[in-house]
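Budget justification aside, the reviewers requested a transparent look at the raw inputs and outputs of the sequence design task funded under Objective 1. We therefore reproduce one unedited record. The lines immediately below are the structure tokens for a 604-residue chain.
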């Protein structure tokens, strides 16, 4: 997955492109590059590694004057992260420069055809075929050439295109990869994400699949695949650009962990009024639903694993959770009586998008719970509940995960109330527990300094086990992923009751085990704590202050504010996030941009 940006207007383009690329680095950072249309044609500058290197090489833009340009930051899909594979890619005659996010699935056959036609390839990328095709198709009509070329492409692409013959113009094309247009005064932009241009404008147009846009300093024209003009509405992005800064924290991940009480308030408060739940006018008829399927990837999938308990517990509809990357190639028993709940922070995860398409085709009704407004998944779904977490920049999600949980709990309670599967008293209790969640997360953040101290004992571990039962097991899954993805310590979440069926063989002297212990299964989990301690494990228990028995068993404890068992994963998330964060700091890891990862995986 990559980030693209383009600018045309009265400013020197390169500083604008560099600022935007810096905000897009969360999408990938193997290499970066930009192209500017100047009097002598198109100038290109590319680096391996971060945007900072590009800033240095272009001397912050002073070395590359020009008022129209495109930029790219890469997460390698085709070809290793080396200079020759860095975008922009050029046509053989140098007339075109192209930046691309996505995958051209038929690029091999196109490459063979172009090579036979005499084109010389400099890279191993799929993107370069687009540049050469444009060079061959262009006869003076730029939109026509772009339409001709994109008609031959299969796969996903968000393209930014620059043509030396028309230096005051940018072309943007969207197919299955996110692409927005930023609308300014005497200047216009294209970008993978509104945050990239939020420092210059909050007026954005979300392009749909198949649409192409022609941008000049003073005009933006959008066309459909057939070349007919399309009228588009302009949205105003409400995110304050300062919200995408670090706010004084050492890392975006810590900032976003600390923001969670506010993020949950943003997700819950507008929907809780005078004891009633108002779900943004959701007109979802549940009476015809006899099963719920939850699908997502990564942490969003683990949010689904935790939220499932609340859905079955409160609205008594059978619910199961399936990885989107599995569901998309499965043969799911889905029909018009199935509600698909799709979870995604970015709303652009390729596997999740594909899973939604499979379920939609089989008649499922689709409810999306996403964070990014206007994202692909939000626009595919029949119903959308935004998590309102604000921009999440750190690759490892935190507030994106806990706000997904909050909205799942809200939906489960709303559905239980509307189906009459929970009584008035229980409804009031759950509603109170929901309203208390932001404050409980605030309380849990109080553990931050203590966790920083405890972690020093664990940061050198080769592996850590996370164990729990029911919702504690679901929370353990997310806790293990957090540790792995930011500290690179191997971690495994395990259903506590399953350990004795084999995996306990791995427990040896000093093996760190994080035991999530609470709720109705606490006594059984305490039995599992004894089992692993008997084999030399060092146990860090995550439990509630009232649970004296567990506290006595553990070597260290992290004490949670008490909430209802169904909602506990939202509170447990905070100490587990902090544990992972501090372990990563201890190990000197690149916390906001962990190796090999990207914030939103928009490729398979
Ligand atoms: C979470 O910390 C990871 N960055 C990753 O697992 C992520 O949750 C997953 O890729 C899904 O992303 P999405 O929520 O944007 O769809």
């Amino acid at each position: 997955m990559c980030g693209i940006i383009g600018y045309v207007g009265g400013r020197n383009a390169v500083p604008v492109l560099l600022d935007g690329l810096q905000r897009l680095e969360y999408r990938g950072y193997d290499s970066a590059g930009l192209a500017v249309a100047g009097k002598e044609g198109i100038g290109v500058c590319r680096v391996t590694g971060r945007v900072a290197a590009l800033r240095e090489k272009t001397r912050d833009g002073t070395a590359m004057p020009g008022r129209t340009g495109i930029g790219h930051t890469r997460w390698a899909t085709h070809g290793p992260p080396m200079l020759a594979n860095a975008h922009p890619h050029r046509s053989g005659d140098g007339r075109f420069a192209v930046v691309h996010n996505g995958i051209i699935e038929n690029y091999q056959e196109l490459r063979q055809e172009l090579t036979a036609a005499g084109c010389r390839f400099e890279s191993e990328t799929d993107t370069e075929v687009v540049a050469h095709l444009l060079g061959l198709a262009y006869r003076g009509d730029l939109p026509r050439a772009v339409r001709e070329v994109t008609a031959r492409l299969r796969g996903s692409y968000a393209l930014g295109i620059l043509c030396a013959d028309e230096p005051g113009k940018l072309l943007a094309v969207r197919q299955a990869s996110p692409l927005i247009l930023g609308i300014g005064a005497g200047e216009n932009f294209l970008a993978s994400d509104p945050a990239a241009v939020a420092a210059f404008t909050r007026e954005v147009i979300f392009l749909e699949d198949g649409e192409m846009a022609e941008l000049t300093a003073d005009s933006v024209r959008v066309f459909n695949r057939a070349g007919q003009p399309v009228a588009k509405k302009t949205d105003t992005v409400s995110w304050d650009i300062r919200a995408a800064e670090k706010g004084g924290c050492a890392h975006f991940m810590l900032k976003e962990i600390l923001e969670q009480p506010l993020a949950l308030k943003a997700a819950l408060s507008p929907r809780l009024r005078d004891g009633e739940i108002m779900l943004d006018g959701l007109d979802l008829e549940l009476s015809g639903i006899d099963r719920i399927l939850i699908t997502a990837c990564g942490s969003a999938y683990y949010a689904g694993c935790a939220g499932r308990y609340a859905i079955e517990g409160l609205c008594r509809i059978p619910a199961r959770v399936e990885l989107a990357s599995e569901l998309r190639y499965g043969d799911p028993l889905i029909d018009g009586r199935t509600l698909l709940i799709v979870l995604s922070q970015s709303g652009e995860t390729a596997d999740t998008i594909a899973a939604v398409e499979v379920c939609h085709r089989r008649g499922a009704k689709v409810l999306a719970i996403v964070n990014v407004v206007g994202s692909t998944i939000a626009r595919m779904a029949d119903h959308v509940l935004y998590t309102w977490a604000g921009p999440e920049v750190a690759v490892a999600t935190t507030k994106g995960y806990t706000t997904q949980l909050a909205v799942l709990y809200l939906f489960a309670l709303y559905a239980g109330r509307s189906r009459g599967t929970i009584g008035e008293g229980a409804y009031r209790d759950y509603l109170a527990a929901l309203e208390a969640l932001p404050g409980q997360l605030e309380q849990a953040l109080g553990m931050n300094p203590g966790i920083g101290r405890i972690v020093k004992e664990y940061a050198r571990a080769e592996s850590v086990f996370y164990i729990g039962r029911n919702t504690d097991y679901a929370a353990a899954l997310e806790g293990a992923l957090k540790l792995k993805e930011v500290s690179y310590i191997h971690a495994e979440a395990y259903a506590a009751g399953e350990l004795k069926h084999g995996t306990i063989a791995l427990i040896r002297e000093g093996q760190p085990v994080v035991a999530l212990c609470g709720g109705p299964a606490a006594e059984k989990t305490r039995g599992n704590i004894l089992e692993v301690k008997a084999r030399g494990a060092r146990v860090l228990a995550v439990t509630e202050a009232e649970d004296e028995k567990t506290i006595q068993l553990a070597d260290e404890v992290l004490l949670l504010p008490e909430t209802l068992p169904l909602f506990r994963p939202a509170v447990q998330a905070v100490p587990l996030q902090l544990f992972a964060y501090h372990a990563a700091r201890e190990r000197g890891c690149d916390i906001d941009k962990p190796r090999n990862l990207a914030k939103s995986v928009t490729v398979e």
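The pocket of 2-deoxy-2-amino glucitol-6-phosphate is lined by residues 297-300, 344-346, 349, 352, 395-397, 485, 600-601 (CB under 6 Å). Residues 256 and 399 are 6 Å apart (CA to CA). Computational costs for records of this kind are itemized in the attached budget.
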